[in-house]
Amino acid sequence: MAYTAENLTPHPHDAHGHHAHASYLEPKGGVIATIWDWATTVDHKKIGVMYLFTILFMFFLGGVAAMAVRIELLDPVRISATGVISGQFFKADASNINIGNNFYNRLFTLHGAIMVFMVIVPSIPASLGNFFLPLMLGAKDVAFPRLNLLSWYIYVFGSIFAVCSIILGGVDTGWTFYTPYSTTTDAEHPKVVLMVLAAFILGFSSILTGLNFIVTVHKLRAPGMGWFDMPLFIWAIYSSAIIQVLATPVIGITLLLLTFERIFRIGIFDPALGGDPVLYQHFFWFYSHPVVYVMILPGMGIISDVLAVQSHKKIFGYRAIAFASLGIAAVSFIVWGHHMFTSMSELASTVFSALTFLVAIPTAVKVFNWIATLYKGSIAMNTPMLYALIFLFLFSIGGLTGLPLGALSTDLHLHHSYFVVAHFHYVMMGGTIMALMAGIHHWWPKMFGKMYNEMWGMVGAMLVFIGFNITFLSQFLLGTQGMPRRYASYVDEFQFLHVVSTVGSWVLFLGFVVHFFTFVTSLAMGKKAPANPWGGLTLEWVAASPPIEHNFEHEPIVKSGPYDFDTTVPPHWDPKDYPIPAANLTAGGRPKMAHSPDKER
Amino acid sequence: MTTLLAEEGFFHRLFFLRRGVTENASDTDDLYMWLWWFCVAWFVFLMVLMTYFVVKYRRRKGRIAPVSASHNTPLEVAWTVIPTLMLVYIFFQGFRGYMDKMVSPGNAIELNLTAQQWSWTLMYPNGAETTTTKRVGAMESPVFYVPGDTPIRLKMNSRDVSHGFWVPDFRHKQDVLPNRYMSVWFNCPSPQKGAKTHPLTREEGKASGVDFFEDLKGVPFEDHVVYCSEYCGDRHSEMAATLRSVPYEAWKKWLSYIESPDDKPLLEIGKLVYTTKCASCHSLDGSVGTGPTWKDKYGFPQEFTNGSSIPAVDDDYIRESILYPTKRIVKGFGPNMALIPLKDRQMLAVIEFMKSVSSHPSAKTRTIDLNAPVSPVPGSAASPMSPAGTAPGGGTAPSKPPIESPK
Amino acid sequence: MSTLTPTSSPKPLWAKYVHASHFRTAAEEFDASKFGFWLFLTTEVLLFGGIFCGYFIFRTLYPEAWREGSHLLDWRFGGGNTVVLLVSSYTMAMSIYCIQKNQQLRAQINLVITLLCGAAFLYIKLAYEYIPKWSVGKRPGMLFDYPFAESPHLPLWWSIYYCGTSIHAAHVIIGMILIARVLYRTTKGHYGPTHYTMVEITGLYWHLVDLIWIFLFPLLYLIH
Fold first, then answer.
1. Beta-strand pair B241-246/B302-303
2. Interchain pair A273, C46: CB under 8 A
3. If we measure between CA atoms, which residue out of A516, A159, A274, A488 comes closest to residue B139?
4. By mean pLDDT, which of A30-39, B60-69, B146-155 is the weakest?
5. What percent of chain A has pLDDT over 70?
6. Model pTM score
7. Alpha-carbon distance C196 to C97, whole Å?
8. Which is the most buried residue in A300, B216, C29, C65, by most CB within 10 A?
9. Measuring CA to CA, which residue among A215, A216, A41, A214 is closest to residue A139?
10. Which of A188, A412, A475 should we substitute to test contact with B (largest number of B Cβ atoms within 10 Å)?
11. ipTM, 2 dp
12. C101 φ, ψ to 5°?
């Protein structure tokens, strides 16, 4: 048996009542008491759940904005933007172009700003990361629980700033706030300043979360858990946290300077005063490129874990994946210029293009490792596994389409076209969101103690998969054919593909609606979940489903690797249900060496 | 890059619709199609392998995964080194094509391009600017004449925010910035056999949407659309242009045609200036844009944001608006108008044009019918004056049509 | 037999401190807190890094504006502020030392001096630098109104100057709030030889504030 809890540090029973052994979800009293309990909690699990629901809600809002954007694009000139205002849907109207376009511009800015700052960046680390980092490490909580709660409130506070900006009419600068447009648009300052400050505040939430995670990984691992005994999800969250801590301050100062530029016209981005708009782009992308790795690395961590657990198979190339995560984090800081090939010098563009290809290598290595993990596995087919496979499919397309974007001569055609839009949706949504869905389903029984309906879960996954591809594959073609991005209207020859893309978005939306109902019915009347439904070996499966408030009855001691499926009976499983063939064990019960020498353990 | 790679095959047409027009463009297409098949190969390989494993190694009751290697150094080294070499190759191919696009030949003709919210202006070597338009999407946008089979370099600058100059047919774009010059160069081939030709009459021009020019009758041309590729605000999607390539000799005739715009009636100049510099903010039909509509503006009273007002919008106010855009702003609007340098003749033309869309009595101008027969001077020995409005008799000389108000 | 045990003085709060239950020992908690705070300080360095980056870029582009601008600053005030902050860093470090030796009163005196130095810094900045300069038109960006400017890019110099020093001043204020809180809690006996985490952390923050100024001062005042 490995990863079991042993009676080394006796639990001080006198300090707690029965509640200490109740699930963390157990209400502490009436409605008011329960709300107050959650509002003042320092329990990482409750904070993770609060983040999860807030983020899913923001995902819904950003998604509605996207649906509206796509409906507008059904007609080459005008569908509903002015129509919504005047109450007439589907009225193609070429007059009042400015008002209609302005509304559209605010819609796509809203979609981008919500999705980037309020959904994808915090999505996995703040929700699943918060919930499972301490559990996987065998700890009772993160290093700074009160800071954790503060970071959630900062997230809510920043989101309120964004909502205020939206209520005042919203911003039309694009989520990238490029100068000089962002410093000169809209005579009144509050709309732009509120949105910029919202992003600034949300940055602090991200920094505090990352800081918390780094210290937790360094200081609070269970006895016996060395760096290379940690699940790969932790390596991913750790690498991502390093980026969060180092890169986010730069967007902080950038947004602060942008606000000063707007209100006081300090001039550093204003050509009339000697400033440089491209300087803003450099500052902005110095953060915003590393942040896309903050978005994807935790997703990759989930995929590593889900694939290994659902295949009951040791992950292939553990150290390669661990070091690749750190490598991606490091290289992510030196490639930001590939967002600016059309506004930089030839020398700078050449250097950045070369460096950009560098970051493709550890990413490709990871994909190979994942597929090799499936070899000779024992692969269950369920919703988490299906989402992991969907991730491999969609993320591969996303990554491969990065190649013509990283190559200079093709990028000169594809930059700021729909090709880029398709590429980043494949990696951000086809990557991070699919991984988030995999993780939510994989860990749902642990988090809520209930099972979800497997069939409907897979139906939802397939709808999402099909809808996603219809929506975004067509956009690659739009891009190469010459359709620029952020266009409210377009020439007739692009209409067919736009219609296809919009219809795809409806299928995609339907998939998420199915998931919503699966989640709700599971919480209301799902089957009670066992402690270890999938047979995972990492410490979170030692805890109860859902875990007790202090996570573990007794501090667990780590005895073997996180993915030693071939030699280890999973916690809470009956050895009769998991018969390890004698061939897998050496005499004396120790793991057998494989034919090609396995130096890892 | 070989041309065996389906230059005009199904997939190339699917991706690009039209061939890359310049040599650099078709090189880019070759690289792109090579990358496409590279990606397809890798993707199919990986997905087939993944699917095969998932099916073959699906979970069966009572079967625990056998011990198998969790790492294999030779394999891992191979799948790190081989992709790295491939990526190095891709980088170099991209770099080569990029330098070809960025370094213009020494004998390129330089034209000056200016971007502003939300239109493009091209200045030809003789100092003349854009003089004709074409409908792209929902709006009229400027047409820039360029000679085929000649290297052209555009020196680009923006008057306000960052824009982007993208010619999809050339597979090339650069941002257009306010604080420095950026440049693109291209050499598009002269229009081939079977290309469209300029209209032979004014009526044919109206029907085809290509303006009629006496000097360019029957000259072949090829149009390439230009889009603004850097988001710049309300009419970002309406900021298009057309690059029209004509044979070199025809282009020289074009230059001499536009050299003396003084031949053209003020109203025609006014309409052109309006379409290329004012239409993005000022409508003609009464609808509200970034700036006030010009319909029924001339001659009517106007209030301003600073509380003052004038009894009638007149020539002086229009001139002041152009020269000092934020001095007196029409009530209900913001200080949005950029300083748009217009020559005196252009200002006069704009005034004429604004008059033509106003119903105020003071805006009526007496039109001169240049087609009417020349009446004999009273008191001379010729026949008495014909009644006004008589149609011209049979004349053999080609006539200029009467000056009309724009639609 | 009656047991008349002498009433001992109540244990001070710091002696009764119990570390958070998710840490195994108090030493682990202290280590973790310091480590976490060093990470936070890294983010502060990167935040100011953006301003230094802007400084160097525009200095390269417009050296004449930079030369003129730095001459318009009085190094005596900048130097005075540097001395003030250095003294305050010393007294802050001393207060930590005193706490470790359980010299509560001396610790509080040192903290008070630190606060006074911080206030002096802000006063010198405001009264002798910001207000006089603002009133003659030496202002950032489009607010610039100084009639004797030689370089057309002088407003940019002033933008960098005001951005850098005002964001720094904001950090001085934050630091003073933290020190005031520590001072208050010291009077209540929260900190002692076995528990002084918050004092250490506040000290680290104050040293960073000082360090940033040590970089700003020569770049703005001394280099011509």
1. unpaired
2. no
3. A488
4. B60-69
5. 91
6. 0.86
7. 10
8. A300
9. A216
10. A412
11. 0.90
12. -95, 5
Q: Which of residues 493-552 of A touch B (CB under 8 A)?
A: 493
Partners of A214 on chain C (C-beta within 8 Å) are 36, 39
A183: which 2 tokens? 């410093």
What number is the average pLDDT over the span B228-257?
91
Instruction: Find out whether A51 and A127 touch, Cβ atoms under 8 Å.
Output: yes
- Determine the straight-line distance between the first and last CA of chain C, rounded to whole angstroms: 85
Report how far residue A477's alpha carbon sits from residue C91's, in angstroms, rounded to the nearest whole number.
66
Strands (DSSP E) along A124-245, which ranges?
A: none
Helix, strand, coil percent values for chain A (each to nearest 5):
65, 0, 30
Q: Phi and psi (nearest 5°) for B221?
A: -150, 165
Nearest to C187 by CA among C9, C8, C13, C11: C13
Q: Work out the average pLDDT over B335-357.
A: 84
d(C-alpha C194, C-alpha C203), whole Å: 17
Q: What does the alpha-carbon distance between residue A486 and residue B236 come to, in Å, rounded to a whole number? A: 8
Q: Determine, for residues A594 and B237 on separate chains, whether the beta-carbon distance falls below 8 Å.
A: no
Side-chain half-sphere exposure of A187, counting CA atoms within 13 A: 7
Rounded Cα distance between C190 and C123, Å, is 31
The closest of A170, A252, A177, A173 to A208, measured between CA atoms, is A252
Look at the alpha carbons of C94, C96, C97, C102 in this order and tell me if their dihedral is positive or negative: positive
- Percent of chain B beyond pLDDT 90? 43
Torsion sign (Cα): C71, C74, C76, C82 = negative
Range 210-269 of A in CB contact (< 8 A) with B: none
How does DSSP classify residue A236? H
pLDDT digits (tens, 9 = 90+) for A131-157: 999 999 999 999 999 999 999 999 999
d(CA B275, CA B132): 9
Distances (CA, A) of A149 to A44, A126, A153, A212, A238: 8, 11, 6, 11, 19
Smallest CA–CA separation between B35 and chain A, in Å?
Answer: 7
For B186, the 3-state DSSP assignment is: strand
Average pLDDT, chain A: 88
What's the pLDDT at B382?
Answer: 47
Yes or no: say if A391 and A309 are a contact pair by the CB < 8 Å rule: no
Nearest CA in chain C to A144: C33
Nearest CA in chain B to A385: B54
H helices within A79-189, ranges in order?
81-86, 97-113, 121-122, 130-137, 145-167, 181-184
C43 closest CB neighbour out of A219, A248, A261: A248
- The token pair that represents C212 in the structure block: 């940033």
The DSSP bridge pattern shows strands B309-310 and B196-197 to be: unpaired
Q: Determine the Cα–Cα distance for residues C147 and A141; give it in Å rounded to an integer.
A: 61
Confidence of residue B385 (pLDDT cuts 50, 70, 90): very low
User: Both tokens of residue A34?
Assistant: 């329960």
State in Å, rounded, how far the first CA of chain B is from the last one.
51
Please classify residue B2 by burial: count the beta carbons closer than 10 Å to its beta carbon, then call 0-12 exposed, 13-18 middle and 19+ buried. exposed
More confident: B296 or A468: A468
pLDDT(A84) > 80: no
| Element of type H or E holding B121 | strand B119-123
Residue of chain B whose alpha carbon sits nearest to that of A593: B67
Whole-number pLDDT of residue A411: 97
A323: Cα within 13 Å, side-chain hemisphere: 6
User: Which amino acid is residue B3, in one-letter code?
Assistant: T
Phi, psi of A243 (to 5 degrees): -60, -45
Cα separation, A190 vs A202, in Å, equals: 18
- Cβ A215–C46 below 8 Å, yes or no? no
- pLDDT score for A1: 31
| Chain A positions in Cβ-Cβ contact with residue B137 (cut-off 8 Å) | 76-77, 489-492
